[in-house]
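Here we describe the complex-level prediction in full. Unlike the single-chain runs in Section 2.1, the three entities below were treated as one system.
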Amino acid sequence: MTNIETNNHNIVYDVEGLNLWYGDDQALKNINMQIEKNEVTAIIGPSGCGKSTFIKTLNRMIENIPIVRTSGEIRYHGKNIFDKSMRVEELRTMVGMVFQKPNPFPKSIFENVVYGPRIHGIKDKKILMEITESSLRSAALWDEVKDRLHDNAYGLSGGQQQRLCIARCLAVQPDVILMDEPTSALDPIATSKIEELIDRLKEDYTISIVTHSMQQAARISDKTAFFLMGELIEFDNTKVIFSNPRDQRTEDYITGRFG
Amino acid sequence: MMDFNTIGQKTFNLSTKGVKKVNTYKIKIDHDRINRRIKLNNISKVVFSLSTVFALIVLAILLYRIGVQSYGWLNFKFLTKNLSIFPEKAGIYGAIIGTVGLMLIVIPVTLVLGVATAIYLEEYATRGKMQAFIKINISNLASVPSVIFGLLGLTVFSRMLNLGSSILAGGLTMSLLVLPIVVVSSQEAIKAVPNFLREASYAMGANKWTTVRKVVLPVAIPGILTGSILALSRAIGETAPLVVLGIPTLILRIPKTIMDDFTALPIQIYYWTLDTVLTAEYANLAAATIVVLLLVLFIMNSFAIVIRNKFQKRF
Amino acid sequence: MRENIEHQLSVIHDRMLTMSNLVSKSIDNAMEAFVKQDAKLATDILANDIKINRLEQEIEELCVTLAATQCPLGSDLRHMVTILKIVTDLERVGDYSCNIAEVAIEMGKYQLIKPLVDLPILNEKATSMLKNSLKAYFDKDIDLAYATAKLDEEVDNLYRAIYHELLYYMKTKSDEENQIIGLILIGRYIERIADHATNICERVIFMETGKSVKF
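The structure predicted for the assembly as a whole is:
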């Protein structure tokens, strides 16, 4: 299953024996996987295979659904995220998330970016302005919006909104960025901008991305995990997964032989 | 010589692409049928527009009647003078003050209690049978007849708490009456806040209260206001609970505090209409008061509609 | 989607069959033309080569279309890459057949210095290697590919022996040097054909296992 040798101090997430149930339906079955620092890990698989569930478990967003139960461990830098001592607010500050549909707040661009820093207690206008500029620059949006920071975020195009969401996420200075199909609602040009951005961001962040597009996974990720019916079928270097997968089910999926 | 054709055929068959389309039925264009359907469509259009016109006609008749009756009676003096037994000297200043006083109690009480309840039910309460039970009963409460709320107010506020027929007693009774409406409409407004906004907030490490305060409420407030204004306009127009509370017929004194007795616009209309048997001119006074009351209600409703339209198309 | 990619692959497969048949006919004819000193047959080979070149181009274009429209992955991707490489090998083999034919036409004028013994054997080995490598491709038969690639060493040794023998003649019968150089060239061409057959075997192993091997 997993054919990757990992260097211990580079492991950000160490998932061990993770099971997850929605009520009586098991959505994740004994997942074992390690996510390494400064790498892009793509998660692919057919709809309903548990890939979104998995990524939402990494920052415990999945717990917003009340009927979810989990077992097993997810160690984030060695600390089990299901531990009582691990505050979910703390975890989500370190692990940011970008969603499928761009979801800026119906506020100004500036207010969107400083939302995170504000709830973590930063009040100084000057510092907030600095954060806004650096986050928007990192998200490759600054030049497009610097003259209209106080306009409503909903005046931006879909691609710009998604980059704003990435900037908003970066403003909290996360360590990991989880992305749940971030380009599925965008056109090809906006998509390629986000992909370029991901490629640059991986120098400073660890990124895990769920994607429906195998081409996208092939283009931007270092490692790829293939999920099927709640199981992690294969996890390997991206080039191996897409040119010479070991498991027949992976091969069938990437060549489009599935249902 | 070796022939690769025979080798190739074993492992690789030329695929046959595409499936032949088979239709088991055929749609025929029947002109008679289409003409019939166009006629039917025209008939229904006329029927539906007549139904709308009916409602408009009723409103027009009402406005015409009270317009004619109140003509000459509705003037500045009418608004600034207090009650009098002489029709030509009478005004509704006291009733206006009474109604404003009522609102000053109803607005804060219903907004605070109603919005808090709605937030609890939508954001905090765990979804389950208990929550569903509470929700259904709040909806039921909204349809309880107003006279029953009047009796409740009479028992609890007037008698038990000994508030008599003061503005406070009336305001609290009215608050009870419209509270379910405010709760339900606030719940709807909160429910209409897209979930992805909450997720965005949670994903940045915000907790529930921060999310409610900084994301959910700002987005829901236009909806909450629309619902609340409509609820308030109902409170302004309600007569029955105040009648049950025993609001006096004739108050010559203008209320100064919320503990004072008072009269309100609908009550004034009610009593003047009753007294028409004594003095015919009272009917004109009632009509003039109706005009004032309707104007206030129209303005409030328009305001609610403006707020709703302005914030409706954001997502 | 799967239907489209399979349709396109089957079209390419069809062209591959035609091309394989043309190339194997070319090398068969080339040696026959040489042995029988048949100039007419040799000219046919040159005509055949035009068809082979055209097929190579066509298959390449089909592969580009496949890559652009279907984005093949996994085994499809390896299959496509393999086809692209095999057609290049096949085209080279076609060229060598032409070269042999050209020499054969030239040699028609001479009386051979000795009866042909080793060159036909060399040719037999190289030709069967090529055909077996193609069979391995069409049958997806890795064992055959391994076995075929192994034969390359025999071909190399035999070629070396022929080469040294001809060098010896070069010294002793220097007035026949044109003919001897022609014979050396033919041997060289046949040996190259065997090399290309080995390449095809390597591609087949890559296609089936994803491993790059070198013989």
